[in-house]
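Annotated sample (chain length 467).
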Amino acid sequence: MLEGSILQQLEIAHRNSKRPIRFGVYYKNTLVALCHALEDHILNDVTSPLVITAFEQGKWYLQEAERYADIAKKSCQVAIMATPDTGWAEHPTSQLPNVNLVALDPTDPVSREWHLIILSPKYTAMVICQELSEADYGSSGLPGSDLERKFYGLWTFEPELVKETAALAIAHIKRYNPELAAQLTAYQDSIQPSLATPEQLSAVVSRVVDYLQTGQVNISVDTATRQQALDRNLVSNEIQAFLRMAQIMDAADITNPMAATEVVALAEIIGQLLDLPAWQIKRLRLAGLLHRIDPLQRVESVLTPGTSSRYQEEAPSCPLTCPLVPGAQVLRTMPRLRAVAQIITHQTEWWDGTGEPAGLTGDEIPLESRILALVADFQWRVNQKKSTQLSREEIFAQALEECRQQQSRRFDPKLIDTLTLLVMGLQQGIELPLMTPKVSAGMWLLDSRLDSESKTIVDLNQNLRTR
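Output written by the structure step:
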């Protein structure tokens, strides 16, 4: 990281904290898609957000000036950091009353960064990156295509992190324009960001995925290998969009903030006990992380009609796609996530056929959906009892008994037997291997498993089998 850059300051602030920041590498086309999606949300925002940007090699982005004129109309204040040679000062957008240019010194490390920071009462988001140096590119050298330029950083919806980064950006602006910095600080202090609602987040996520997929279709590079690298970066960020939404929804539930993490741990252990293949456990894991994002099931594409259907046509056939659920579900727009969307959709089916949305019965219900339904219910019951005077053993026993009362009606009786074995281990002191998903590297959820995590699950599985 560049010495004195905003990205470096943020990394240092969190280096030894309980929540260190996980950075990732993004291609330029991915960042363009992300920024356009987040900017579009400003155009639909009624809360007049504060917007702070930094345009690395700003001359490349002068075409964005007209767009920022529209963004300014919807914002309380827009601050644009760029070097004087970018042409921004000569554009009419710079003359708008709520737009302020900060002319960066060409040697300023922030002139090598690409930032979009959005702060409003109902919506926060940011992209904060800096381009890799020539040494960072290694033996492959500098990319020949503009689309293949790489940036190191992160993007997020998390309010506190966005607010912290905005403060760092304003402090940097103060070096150039103390009066403007004071105004921006006043605007920031007047904004008390809160966690977005599931509906608001789902709208943002749908835009992000649509832009990423549209960008993917329009990409043309020289070789198949380079095309594959770009594609993987886009898919990874699509997954990140869903995971970030799921994390924020968990954090917003102060009564059960560890729901997704604990459900994943329980589901993976049951998958191991059932000897499910690695690919199926991996799919179950991702479904567990996303199992509470039901609002996404009702979000239509925000781009051109037919955008979503095109991606469904390219996806492999999925035998249990439910006709009762709209076909434009955001998860289903990604071919690799159609199976996960199916698992989440059918987790509300009941073993006796009285559930929704398709009224499937018994083994007609996808196995992963049955597992997810059971462990989610069990986790919820355990969490509800944590505030009681019951012992650990009693909590697990009561939660299991309540689930058992619904076997053959709501839950698969065979899975109740497997859960019973798991509870025996938990009562004897075995701890759940809770692992926070590494959102900055979403592809591993689809393509590989971390050895350390696999070992943790396998060891726990072996302990259970010997008891």
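Annotation: The chain has two domains: 6-194, 256-303+318-326+340-465.
Annotation: Residues 22 and 438 are 7 Å apart (CA to CA).
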